[in-house]
Amino acid sequence: MSERLVVTLDGPAGVGKTTLAKRLAEALGVAYLDTGAMFRAVAWKLGEGAWDWPEERLSKVLSAMRFSLVGQGGDSRIALDGEPVGEEIRSETVARWASNVARLPVVRQALKQAQQDIGRGTSLVVEGRDMGTVVFPDAPCKFFLDAAPEVRAERRMLQLRQSGQPADFDKILGQIKARDDQDRNRAVAPLKPAADAVIVDTSSLDVEGVFQKILAHIRGA
Fold first, then answer.
1. What angle do CA 185, 188, 194 make, to 5 degrees?
2. Burial, 68: exposed, middle or buried (Cβ in 10 Å; 0-12, 13-18, 19+)?
3. C-alpha span between 96 and 178 (Å, rounded)
4. I need a labelling partner for 72 at 20 to 30 A (CA). Which of 30, 55, 64, 187 fits?
């Protein structure tokens, strides 16, 4: 496209941001940036307990990490130090680690800079927790997706079972509620809609319905 376009999709876990972001990127012919994968990749690489490291140690390790995008459109993927990240970052354990490291200002600042570097001069559909509020506050198209915790737990349970992994609804619901509480109440960049974001409740909408609603808004903007 002739002008740079940044579309931000923010919201809690389990609202369908990844699926929608990929479809939108493909439809718009732009790159897809999964910032959640960046936090997960950092957490996975640092390992359990890294959130308790001294800030100086964390800063040194983070400054040596290099993020980039590989692939095109909806198939764009995050690469860390030249290696595309894969399913190793998708476990619930790594998700909890990522939520812990995401509370740290030194981590958020490092990844904010990496995300802005990727987006500089490149059209993107970008998903995360604070894309419209902190990382790309001047983005012309901002959306905040939400859904009831029970709906998100059900979706996550089905996703895990379809991939052959064990899944207990009550356990997943508890994890989602705990992560919501942490994400929404952290001191740095808490999860919340940007003042100019379009809020979309996905509880009663299927993926196609949400996709068409967002795409129509972008093309009419």
1. 80
2. middle
3. 10
4. 64
Q: How far is CA 182 from CA 80, 103, 111, in A?
A: 26, 8, 19
Q: Please tell me the pTM assigned to this model.
A: 0.83
Cα dihedral value 169, 173, 179, 182, nearest 10: -160
| Spatial separation of the C-alpha atoms in residues 23 and 100, rounded to whole Å | 29
Token pair 């974001």 is found at 197
pLDDT tens digits, one per residue of 51-80:
999 999 999 999 999 999 998 888 899 999
In which element (H, E) is residue 112 found? helix 105-119
pLDDT tens digits for range 151-207: 999 988 998 899 888 899 999 999 999 988 888 887 777 889 999 999 999 888 888
Positive or negative torsion for Cα 102, 61, 132, 35: negative
Q: Are 136 and 119 in contact (CB under 8 A)?
A: yes
Identity of the residue numbered 171:
K
